[in-house]
Structure formats: structure tokens, C-alpha cells
Automatic annotation (TrEMBL):
<keyword id="KW-0325">Glycoprotein</keyword>
<feature type="signal peptide">
    <location>
        <begin position="1"/>
        <end position="26"/>
    </location>
</feature>
<dbReference type="Pfam" id="PF13947">
    <property type="entry name" value="GUB_WAK_bind"/>
</dbReference>
<feature type="transmembrane region" description="Helical">
    <location>
        <begin position="259"/>
        <end position="275"/>
    </location>
</feature>
<keyword id="KW-1133">Transmembrane helix</keyword>
<keyword id="KW-0675">Receptor</keyword>
<feature type="domain" description="Wall-associated receptor kinase galacturonan-binding">
    <location>
        <begin position="34"/>
        <end position="98"/>
    </location>
</feature>
<keyword id="KW-0732">Signal</keyword>
<dbReference type="GO" id="GO:0004674">
    <property type="term" value="F:protein serine/threonine kinase activity"/>
</dbReference>
<dbReference type="GO" id="GO:0016020">
    <property type="term" value="C:membrane"/>
</dbReference>
<feature type="domain" description="Wall-associated receptor kinase C-terminal">
    <location>
        <begin position="168"/>
        <end position="245"/>
    </location>
</feature>
<keyword id="KW-0808">Transferase</keyword>
<dbReference type="InterPro" id="IPR032872">
    <property type="entry name" value="WAK_assoc_C"/>
</dbReference>
<dbReference type="Pfam" id="PF14380">
    <property type="entry name" value="WAK_assoc"/>
</dbReference>
<keyword id="KW-0812">Transmembrane</keyword>
<dbReference type="GO" id="GO:0030247">
    <property type="term" value="F:polysaccharide binding"/>
</dbReference>
<dbReference type="InterPro" id="IPR025287">
    <property type="entry name" value="WAK_GUB"/>
</dbReference>
Amino acid sequence: MKYTVFFTSLDICVFCLILLSRKSSATDFRYDACLPKNCDNGPKIKFPFYIEGLQKSYCGYPGFHLKCGKHGYPMISSTENDYIVENISYPRRSFRVYNAAVLSNLNGRCLPQIRNTTLPIREFQYVNATSLYFLSNCIEPLPNDLLRYKVECPGEKRDNLDLAICDKDENLQKGLKNCEKIVAAPVEVHGDEERIVVGEYKKILRRGFELYYSSSSECSTCEREGGRCGFNTTISKFRCFCPDRPHYKGCRPRRADSGMLYFIFVAFDLWNVIIEKLV
């Protein structure tokens, strides 16, 4: 009888150990799927962003999808333009971008083919952007005070992009009156760059501009506790993907985990009592 009780107790303890080891060794597939990744170049991509084709959509926030461009950089698209994501500051919730057409025209003399820009989603806000106007189909001859804004583009069979003027330049209104086609590109200007001269527009376009983004404030807690941030699109809620399973905010053990550990400790105590009686 003593040995029957002994082996029954031993079986219970071994079973509990198996449960615990399986629970601790199995990693939730969403946790693995949301490992930060990048394209060949550029920053590491993680929540609230995700790379289409490399990461699952639940690893990011709706609308924050990126793609790897032909140059190997992550890109974000608006209706009119593609933008290279140059860097991301996750603590500041900001990222810097520049028009992808600039990268395709590094050695060209002509202005890149760009269009008016609309931010793709409402969660993005300009940090400190102004507008650089490209004016074409202008009346000739141009007034003398507009000549310094003229952009030459010889041999190109396309609309002649005649002028490049910043929005705070005193001659902008005169340029708008003399030209039919108008494109405004968001940029950042420094110092006296508001009075642009020929050749500076490429440097300003390449610098790009910074955007703030808004997303869940709970991601820092999740990452601090070893999780990877994600989003449940079915219920439109933030989720923290932990090695064991998704949690609401962080990866600290819940009551169910504590209950399992308590059960195992009780089983071991019972085993020790039985061993003492058998001895």
C-alpha cells in the first residue's frame, strides 16, 4: 500500500514538471513573428511600424505599413509620393523621411518628379516643415527678380519645372502669378535657406522632414518586461506579445501562472511528506 501511494505521488509530480517545462519552453508564434527587422539599409523596424512581406500586420499599428524599396531602404507611401524612411526615434515617436524621387536623381541636373503631398494617415503630424514650391509652365520672359530661382533641365522631354521657391520667400507670390503649374513639397529649411538659390533645392529635398506619430503608450511597458508590441485588429486593441502568450500590457505572470506554480509546490510538499512516512 505504501509503495502504491508513493508511485502515485511520484507520477503526479512528474506530470506537473512536464507541464511546467512545456509551458516554459514553448514560445508564442506572435512573439517570434514580431522580431524587429530591417531592409538591407535603414533603421530597425518594430511597432508601430511593420514591413509588408517581412513582418505580420499584427506586429504594427493599422496604416503604419512600410515596404522595402528597390534601393534597399524602408519606404512609406502616400497617394502621390513614396518616401524613404531614413531614421526612427521610438522614444520621441518621430521619424525622418525624404522623397524617394530624390534618391533616383542623385546625379541628375533636373528636378525629380514629385507631386503634391498628403500625409497617408491622421496619426502622422509634421514637426517643423515648410513648403518648397516647384513652379512650371511659366510665362516667359521671366521677371528679373525670379531668374535666380530658375532650374535648368536641358534635353528632358517633360514639363519644364522652371522655378523652385520656398513658401516664405518674398518673391513667391510673383512666381505664383507667372506660372500655371504648382507643386508644393514639405521640407525643413535652416537659417537663410528660405531665400533659396539655384542648386540648394536638392540639398533641402534630400534633408527631408520629420514627422511625429501617435500610437499606443503601453508599448514601453511591454518592451520593458521582455515583450514585443503588436495590435489585435479584430478588437482594435494593443497587445503585448510575450514568449508565453499575448497579454494586455506587459509580460508579468498573471494569476493563472501563480496558481500553476502553487499547485506544483503543493505537489512537491505532499511528495516530501509521503517520503518521510515511508522512511
